[in-house]
Every structure is written in structure tokens, then in C-alpha cells.
Amino acid sequence: MRGPRDADQPWKEAGAARFVDPRLQALSWAVLAPNPHNMQPWLIDLADEDRIDIYFQTDRGLPQTDPWDRQLTIGFGAFTELLVMGAAHAGYQAEVSPFPDGAPQPKLDGRRIVSIRLRAEQAQADPLFSAVLRRRTDRGNYALEPLGQDVGGAIAAELRNPAGFDLHDDEADVVALRDLAIRAFEIEMRTPLTWMESIDVMRIGRAEMDAEPWGLALRGPMIEFGRLVGAVSRESLADPAGAGFQTGLDMFNTAIASTPAFVSQVTPGNSRLDQFETGRDWLRLHLAATRLGLTLQPCSQALQEYAEQAEPYAEIHERLAPSGGTVQMFARIGRANAFRRRRAGRSKLG
Ligand SMILES: Cc1cc2nc3c(=O)[nH]c(=O)nc-3n(C[C@H](O)[C@H](O)[C@H](O)COP(=O)(O)O)c2cc1C
């Protein structure tokens, strides 16, 4: 069964020769950046000849799960880091000026998020760049096996701010963090306003993905089949008594139970710049893990700043930032389990 066409196109066209302007070359990579709910909230102004200004498209916010636009700002950081790498690949150095008109608080507004100037000076190629097209958020089941020796050190070595990064693979920590992730996810699902924020941007199957190639994608043969027979629908996903809702919860629980380790990023403060820098490093972290054959899924629910999530929020901060600071990212890390690895191997051969 074929996959989506338009929604996957940017992954096929990144770096294409038809993007003659180096700014478009760099941007063709940047648009592949990980970002919350895949809202792709970037508005791009090709300002002067060599300048790119990035703005926030205010109708792409997540007011329920990200009331202060903290996660969206992380997404802009990831976008910028990928832009810098894409520019270097095209032979340009990128000069990054975050929040040149001031850092918007308490929410993002119409001011520039970042202004980037490209200079025709050979920049150092980034070894992480080779993993860009293989990096995807992986919500599947992982193998319950050790990650390998000093994975934490290998990832930290690729980061701009290694001090903010941590790998949690101690058995007792992992058990407690799995439990916390599950509780927080269930709160998000059972809080109608926050769960509907996901449902509203859920694309079920390739036709919906192609029609609106942003938002959260449910894809694959089982989804196409479920959609056709009416088993997977927005209604059954939204309704706590519906089969889709229960399947969503079960799938998350199974995925978490299969998680051998977690990673986190913590900043001492929580300024816009802290959030933006976290995003630059989140992209680097994800690429470094990809290069090591590992795979990731952020589990952001416990980090979200709405009333129902207050307990998991306090608990995750006690665990991961005991001496203060803000936990900006929290994610599961591992390898696809043996069944998925075999299937991937077969489809490559076939
Ligand atoms: C700040 C941030 C928070 C995220 N939180 C979650 C999350 O809680 N659960 C999840 O499955 N994915 C999460 N993601 C991953 C995005 O949904 C994903 O990057 C986006 O859908 C694009 O897909 P891709 O990463 O496969 O390109 C998060 C990403 C970012 C940058």
C-alpha cells in the first residue's frame, strides 16, 4: 500500500539542485526539524539578499498543552540548528541572532524569533548531518537491552551544552520514570481540552496527511484498513469509551514498558534563549542517537504547564532537576525491538 505523497515530498527534496538560492537550500533541510505536534509554525521572510527572518505563525500554537509556547520555542531552536547544518552543507556559514527584537513573554508574538545571515564562507561540515534523513520520532516498541557502552558520553560530546544533558539507564530510575510517563500521558488523554488539541491535528491515513501535511500522522497499512472499516476515526480516538481511545492508551503503555532508558535536558533558568538553545541541542541529541543506531520519542506530558499536570510536573522536576532548574525535554531512548528490526531488514531486501 503506498504512503503519502505530498507529506513525504520535503524528505525527498531536501538539498535538491533546483533550490539555487542558498537560503532555500538551507531551508529545505530546516523544514524537516522535529517540533511539537508537528505544527510547523514557522513563517519565513527572505529579507535582504543574504538574510532569513523567522516568525511564529500565531494560529499554529498549542494553547492547551503548551500555554507559554515553551515547547514551540524548542521547535524553533531545532529548526535553526538544522538550517545552520543545511547552510554548511551548501558551503555557507550561518550567523544566528535569536530574538533580535527582544524575547517575547509570556507568549510568543509577532516579533522575529530568529534572524539568520548566510555568508559565502566554507563552514565546518557537521558529522551529524549524515543522520538527518534517518531521524524520525519513533513511537514504536524498543528492545529491552542495554544501549551500549558510554552512549551518554558519546551523545554529550556532540552537544553545545553537554552539562544540561543526562541519560537515565539505572534500573530503579527507569522503572520510576516509566510509571511517571504513563501517568502523565493518561492525564493528557483524560483531560478533554488537552487531548482534543492532539485529535484536532490528527491526520488519519495518507489522504489526510497529503491534504494537510502538518500535524500528527497516523500512517501505515493497519491505519488505512482501520479507517476504511470505521475502526479508526476521530470520534473513537476522542471518546474515552471508544476503542480507538483505549488502543491509543494501550499502545503508549506497551511502548513505555519496552523502554530501556530515558534522556533529559535541563536548564538552570527558563528564558526564551534557554528554550531556544535546548531546541538546538535537542536536534543534535536526536541526530547523535540516530547515528549510534538508537531511536527516540519525547514524552512531554509531565513537562506541560497546565493545572491537571501539576503533580507529574513537580515529580519529574524533583527527580531530574533536584537542585532546581527546568526540565525542558524528556524522552525515551532505545533500539527498535527485534521484530521491527527483522521486518525492516526484510523490506530492505524485498
Ligand atoms: C518540544 C517537543 C516536544 C515533543 N513532544 C512529543 C511527545 O510528547 N510525544 C511524541 O510522540 N512526540 C513528541 N515530539 C515529537 C514531534 O511530535 C515530532 O517531532 C513531529 O511530529 C515531527 O515528526 P518527526 O520528528 O518524525 O520528523 C516532540 C517534539 C518536540 C520538538
User: So what's the CATH class of the largest domain?
Assistant: Alpha Beta
Mean of residue pLDDT?
A: 94
Net shape:
globular
> H/E series, N to C?
HHEEHEEHEHHEHEHHHEHEHEH
Strand content range: 5-15%
Query: How many beta-strand runs?
Result: 10
CATH architecture type of the largest domain: 3-Layer(aba) Sandwich
Binned, the helix content reads 40-55%
The number of helical segments is 13
Q: Could you name the CATH homologous superfamily of the largest domain?
A: NADH Oxidase
General description of the model:
This protein is of the alpha+beta class and 350 residues long. It has two domains: 9-134, NADH Oxidase (3-Layer(aba) Sandwich); 151-202 and 242-340, NADH Oxidase. It contains 13 helices and ten strands. The chain has helices at 9-13, 22-30, 70-89, 151-156, 171-190, 192-199, 206-211, 221-228, 234-238, 243-257, 272-291, 310-320, 338-349; strands at residues 42-45, 51-56, 93-98, 114-119, 165-168, 202-204, 216-218, 261-267, 295-298, 326-334. The strands form three sheets. A four-stranded antiparallel beta sheet has the order 1-2-4-3, covered by helices on one side. The protein has a four-stranded antiparallel beta sheet with strand order 5-8-10-9, sandwiched between helices. It is globular, with a radius of gyration of 20 Å. The mean pLDDT is 94. Flavin mononucleotide is lined by residues 34-38, 71, 74-75, 78, 136-137, 139, 216, 282, 297-301.
